[in-house]
Model the fold of this input.
Amino acid sequence: MKSSKRNMTKRAFSKGYYTSHAGKPKAGCPHFVLQERQAWLNGWQAGRVDRVEGKHFSKLL
Done:
């Protein structure tokens, strides 16, 4: 199994980042587990900052 499938916190962060970078709202967070939800929201915020600054997926490459 790939490590991205095992580490749900890291995966939630990246999914939130990509969601934000696509211009979608943070109200669409699919997670209910507190740790994963917080990681998703942190990723969403990081993606939002990068999107406003004009960066292209710099945090995840």
Observations:
- The two ends are 21 Å apart (CA to CA).
- The longest helix spans residues 34-53.
- The chain has a mean pLDDT of 86.
